Amino acid sequence: MSHPQAAGEFLKDHPKAKWHDETLWFVRDKRDRISKTIPEWEELRNLASQIKENVLSKLDEYLIEFEKNAQANGIHVHWAKDGEEHNQLVLEILRKQNCTAIVKSKSILTEECHLNPYLEKNGIEVVDTDLGERIVQFLNQPPSHIVLPAIHLKKGEISELFHEKLHTEKGNEDPTYLTQAARIHLREKFLGAKVAITGVNFGIAETGEFVVCTNEGNADMGVHLADVHIACMGIEKIIPRRKDLGVFLRLLARSATGQSVTNYNSHFRSPSPGKEIHIILVDNGRTAQLAREKFRNSLKCIRCGACMNTCPIYRRSGGYSYGSTVPGPIGSILSPGLDMKKYSTLPFASTLCGSCSDVCPVKINIHEQLYEWRQEITKTHGELGKGLSMKLASGIFKSPLAYKISGNLMRAALKTLPKSLIYHPINSWGKGRNLPETPEETFKEWYLKNRK
Amino acid sequence: MSSRKSILEAIKAIPREEKPLPDLPDFGISGELEEGFTQSILGNKGEVLEKSVFENWLATQDFSKILSLTESYRNLSTIELPKDPHELSTLDLAILEGQFGVAENGAIWLDDSQLFLRAIPFITEHLVIVLDRKNLVPTLHQAYQRIGDAHSGFGLFVAGPSKTADIEQSLVIGAHGAKSLRVVWK
Question: Which positions fall inside the LUD domain (chain B) (predicted)?
């Protein structure tokens, strides 16, 4: 389904769509307010961007340094060229442990690799432990937002779901009550899991340690009770120095949810005695994106989700309308690199207003890259339906006479023609857009009358 | 070819100009550290207490399992530190010593030498961290300077109780980890 079609589906439930829009805007507003309390905010964004710039220019060296230091700390380091190899590596580790049930904290990378269905197919029970992720997992849905996975659901829907899955009281929609039920349910899973999987927010080359940030504490509940911790990390998550964390942790939570820091920021350097830590470094299209000079900067992303919260299209079309693991503006510049045909409508799901670039904590020029992808896609896949009307318009605008005649004709026609003809399916521009009221006279006529 | 080799070779083959790694300035905060820290903890839904207030509060509670790993309150422990953290699944209260706190966001640094078992601050129902008010730094920049190249297998910035807003953005305290955080001045 194309983005406009899927967005149309989302907008059918108007009150819910409005709630979605307003709620994400509220998060954006919180981000604005907290960022204004840091006088050096813009300087931090510049620094973060420069650090990532340096990382991308020396990524191979940093990865080697990270591996060496992590191994010296007793961490097992694995490499995966794509999602499939990543999933196989995870399964191998589980098989060695005779493990058939795991707990997993939030990891967009494992979503990208479709780890859950792969493990389930191989007889492993996977329990997502972030509350939002557990909710969407119960529904067999992917997250609709990278930071707020269940933002597309209302508490009534979650109450019904928990009544069915966790036997909560029917009709009890109190978030505290529902969260408590999930706490009891998940605690049992934490206590029973031998292997825990987490994502990685930052990997530090200098020390070989990695950092995982959560508010719920679910990543830590999983890994400190399990015998084996598997951390899945995209190769672009490397930063050079421990002190660079000062810059990134100051930006991450403030950009994501408008809070000063996540409540738990865990730095893993070596396993507890008798336990194991494995880290899987995953490429899955990242080196290909690195090779695309115009789109290279998209790899600076720290997955805060600020561009989604601010985007007028995301807020009004929902995460699922993008059909990609990472939705929203950043997803629309990452996904075409993975499959240009499949994601060909995403770079057009934008007004190019630039708000995404304005809030991005690592200063990715997101809206410019959206524009660049449009050029690439149009070159490869043709002009996507608007071609005919645009060619016609171009001919009219080039000739003053044609412009004058068609202008007069259109003003008369728009008033009298039936709507079905104006908003004809052939005119894809007219779909979802309203024409303004046509004025009585042209600007030229008004000017001639009023210049005296 | 191994994936390691193919990934590294693919990166090496991309023509790139080396970009400099910036130096980090020493940003501070305006205002007093203790007041800033206290406000930050409150914002994260924790509390900051004087010793006497904490002791009065504790006297009103009916905790059966308390594990205290700080010199200040060693005698409060009702259980021994187990080998296996699973045995702490019904722990009511953990009392730990914090190394230092960060005024801008309330984050408190602990590593393996304060934690003993890494699961403790998460698995406990309630968490108390004892902190010396002299051990406060303005921002995370000074925090990482202070950590320097200290080597611990695990390090944690904890800034509040476990929380979530995944149901309609309504804030709920006590998702999976500790349901409360009290910072007690030493």
Answer: 87-184
pTM of the model: 0.93
- Does residue B3 sit at the A interface (CB-CB below 8 Å)? yes
For the four alpha carbons of A50, A56, A61 and A64, in that order, the dihedral sign comes to positive
Residues A224-270: tens digit of each pLDDT: 999 999 999 999 999 999 999 999 999 999 999 999 999 999 999 99
Q: Is residue B151 part of a domain?
A: yes
Residue A20 placed within a domain? no
Residues of A in contact with B149 (CB under 8 A): 207, 242
**Closest partner CB to B141 (pick from A135, A240, A246):** A246
Which CATH number is B65's domain given?
A: 3.40.50.10420
Range of the domain at A404: 388-450
Task: State the DSSP H helix or E strand holding residue B82, giving kind and residue range, or none if neither.
Answer: none
Instruction: Report strand pairing: B154-158 vs B108-111.
Output: antiparallel
Same domain as A251, residue A102: yes
Cβ neighbors of B45 (< 8 A, separation 6 or more) are: B160, B161, B163, B171, B173, B181
**Segment A158-216, tens digit of pLDDT:** 999 999 999 999 999 999 999 999 999 999 999 999 999 999 999 999 999 999 999 99
Q: Has residue B125 been placed in a domain?
A: yes
- B16 in any annotated domain: no
Using a CB-CB cut-off of 8 Å, the residues of chain B touching A220 are: 118-119, 121-122, 156, 177
Q: Considering A381, A404, A439, which residue would you say is the last residue of a domain?
A: A381
Nearest CA in chain B to A247: B141
Structural domain includes residue B117: yes
**Do A356 and A215 reside in the same domain of the chain?**
no
Q: Do B169 and A23 touch (CB under 8 A)?
A: yes
pLDDT, tens digit, 9 for 90 and up, residues A9-35: 999 999 999 999 999 999 999 999 999
Integer Cα distance of A311 and A295 in angstroms? 20
Report residue A129 CA to chain centroid gap.
19
Q: Which residue has the tokens 């699973």?
A: B86
Size of interface A-B (CB pairs under 8 A): 236
For residue A264, the SS3 value is: strand
Residues A351 and A375 in one domain: yes
Q: Which residue of A57, A242, A271 is in closest CB contact with B153?
A: A271
DSSP code, position A244: H
Domain finish residue from A358, A381, A404: A381
Same domain for A48 and A194, yes or no, is: yes
* A272 and A306 housed in the same domain: no
**What's the domain count of chain A?**
3
Helix residue ranges, H only, A275-327: 286-291, 306-310, 312-317
End-to-end Cα separation, chain A, in angstroms: 56
Cβ(A424)–Cβ(A430) below 8 Å: yes
Question: What is the distance between the alpha carbons of residues A16 and A12, in angstroms, rounded to a whole number?
Answer: 9
Residue A438 has pLDDT above 90, yes or no: no
Strand locations in A253-326, DSSP E?
264-268, 276-282
Rounded distance between C-alpha atoms, residue A371 and residue A365, angstroms: 10
> Has residue A177 been placed in a domain?
yes
Q: Is residue A29 part of a domain?
A: no
**Do the Cβ atoms of B143 and A267 come closer than 8 Å?**
no
Do residues B62 and B119 touch, judged by C-beta distance below 8 A? no
Which CATH number do you get for residue A143? 3.40.50.10420
